[in-house]
Amino acid sequence: MSKITRMLRLTRSAIFLLGIRIYNTDSAKMSMWSHLILGTLLLVSTSWSQPLVLDEAAAITYLEEYDRLAADMSYQYAEAAWKYETNITEETLANMTEWSLKRSDFNYREAKNASRFDLSKINNQNISRLLRKVMDIGTAAFPDTVKLEKISDLEGEMTSIYSRARGCLNTTTCLPLEPDLVDIIANSRNYAELTAAWKGWRDASGRNIKKLYPEYVSLLNEAITFEGKYKDMGDYYRSSYESPTFENDVKALFLELAPLYENLHAYVRRRLKEHYGADKFPSTGHIPAHILGNMWAQDWTNIYDLVAPYPDKRTVDITKALIDQNYTIIRMYKVAEDFFSSIGLYKMPHLFWEKSLLVKPVNREVVCHASAWDFSNKRDFRIKQCTALTEEHLLTVHHEMGHIIYYLAYKDLPYLYREGANPGFHEGMADIVTLSFQTPEHMKKIGLLDAIPGQNDTEGDINFLFRMALSKAAFLPFGYLVDQWRWSVFRGETKPERYNEKWWDLRCDFQGIYPPVERSNADFDPGAKYHIPGGTPYISYFVSFVAQFQWHKALCKVANIAGPLHRCDIYSNTIAGARLNDMLKMGSSRPWGEAMLKITSGTSGQTDKLSVAPLLEYFDPLIKWLQENNKKYNEILGWDKKNCPNFLSPHILSGSPRVQNITFILTMMSALFSIAISIIEN
Ligand code: KAF
Ligand code: ZN
């Protein structure tokens, strides 16, 4: 290269970087002159020749500067979102929307800046991965800020409706979801009362969100397709998994797990019939959706007492133990912190205890759905949870703290890598300790259980595994279907007139449950689940429920803990903790297969893929027991997937293909009868 061209290139790089620096200062504060100068600088630098070939050193300098600015922007946005979610008002919503726009604007500018580096000239994989991440900005690539503002507003408004909703049991009693309606669905065994709580919640939440959702969908799609990189918003969500076969892969995993779920379903259905009466169960084989102990029938632990395999064995009641032992909310968090620190992971920093919201405030509206927050400054991490003194909440405390532990493990990575290896990894990390924590051995260790099933106590062991299945196996179809619904909506396959019909098709088909009261397309039951109005992807939980068993198996193996997988407790095992940390501290710096390999390597489950084998191994004794029991009682596994009881509406009567078919058959039959009658009469 001649001296002159080298000089020219150097000056061009300098002009470019200077341009970026100036442009990165808050543009609102810039004078007209600086705009002019900046414009000229950028114009000169970019019109020289496109794309600019900048060397790796320039990219590193750029990324360092980006890191500082992006972390700062993230902090500001998180503060605004925190203020809104811990005090829902018009002002806090407006402030959050304002910061959401500022953040989009920032991402837009930086993506443009980063696009001037010629990736084909950068050999360092790490630098090109980072630059690609700067450029992958999702909806922020859409230049119509009015529409972006509308998206943010709609999301805030939907979350607000969900969080402020009060479900009415009758004309005088209306209650919030947390803690009241959740408690009724968990503890009431009165069919009518359960129905009222179930319907009341959907009338107050989903039904009022319905009117906002179609516009939200169409704006998100318009924004995400603008660049031509993604087909629709679902396509963008799936891109976090960096795999073109992701959709088929999760489907295959789901199908492999279906027999376990079907066996659990058939057994629970038989036991619930004994309690509520066979007349409550349609001939299609579905279970009423509101009698499974959870508002969405996604976790069935709360009905353990009704369906325990060996009810004469003493049943565990951790909630009662918490109350009897005068547990406080803070103590629940200390117990979780103790678990993580026992395996050599982190303690919560002091700001966590100062700034978290751990109890539902009485004087203002908040978003009660639990979450864990990273304020991107390496020291401020918080949990927001309307914690109650129950076993379910104790597990959620561990779950949320698991997210914080992941944050702490990767806090020193570049900002762009401070994420889970994929979103399912973050959720999986959040849940993995629950597999150790819930073992009878561990419960006894911390004094929440006084006796554990001995070596030869098969019945006690089956009771325990069954209880685990009520949370981990019962969840699988729900974890899978929520985004099946959402992806179909974003693809345009499911139109607003059929939102609810599609939802119930999936719920009936995959979960084998049916709505206890008539539903129609005037209802919007997906909107009664937080993650739909909240715009939070859900397939991550399905991925998590598969991966956490893979990791549990790997950790128990490297820690050399003997015995069956379902009785392994990694508490106080720093070898297991170190292996887990090795994966966590990678953040999203490498494709997730490498993170999977990091944790499973050298064990019999070594892989860079998702696998259901460890989950099936964990539940193996129970699967055999369920199969035998279902055979003994001649239970027919499954349900009629073509028929979803109780979904009726004027629309479905005239519009759905299924009903069109029925209508066609009936019309033909009546025509044939008319002909036959007229022949006979003549
Ligand atoms: C998981 C485990 C047991 C039972 C059920 C589940 C699924 C799911 C549910 O349906 O309840 N669990 C949650 O929603 C727990 C909340 C959370 O920790 O997953 C939370 C959800 C959230 C809330 C606001 C915005 C985005 C997501 N996730 C996080 O706080 C989070 C997610 C990714 C990284 C870091 C934190
Ligand atoms: Zn989570």
What keyword list fits this structure?
682 residues, two-stranded parallel ribbon, binds ligand KAF, binds zinc ion
* Largest sheet features: 2 strands, antiparallel
Bin the strand percentage.
under 5%
**Nearest-angstrom radius of gyration?**
28 Å
- Spatial strand arrangement across the major sheet: 1-2
Instruction: Give me the number of helical elements.
Output: 28
- Which ligands accompany this protein? ligand KAF, zinc ion
Global mean pLDDT: 91
Total beta strands: 6
Flag low-confidence runs: 1-49, 651-660
Distance between the termini: 103 Å
Judged by helices, strands and strand pairing, the structural class is mainly alpha
Q: What share of residues is helical?
A: 55-70%
Which geometry do the CA atoms define?
A: globular
Helix-strand layout with pairing:
Layout lengths: L2 H22 L7 H17 L7 H30 L4 H25 L10 H11 L9 H20 L1 E3 L5 E3 H11 L3 H14 L1 H4 L3 H13 L7 H6 L7 H31 L10 E2 L15 H4 L10 H7 L4 H14 L7 H6 L15 E4 L6 E4 L6 H19 L13 H15 L2 H6 L12 H15 L3 H16 L7 H13 L1 E2 L24 H20 L15 H11 L7 H9 L12 H20 L17 H6 L1 H25 L1
This protein binds ligand KAF and zinc ion.
Q: TL;DR?
A:
This protein is mainly alpha-helical and 682 residues long. The chain has helices at 3-24, 32-48, 56-85, 90-114, 125-135, 145-164, 177-187, 191-204, 206-209, 213-225, 233-238, 246-276, 304-307, 318-324, 329-342, 350-355, 391-409, 423-437, 440-445, 458-472, 476-491, 499-511, 539-558, 574-584, 592-600, 613-632, 650-655, 657-681; strands spanning 166-168, 174-176, 287-288, 371-374, 381-384, 513-514. Among the domains are: 3-139; 232-313 and 421-651, no CATH class; 657-682.
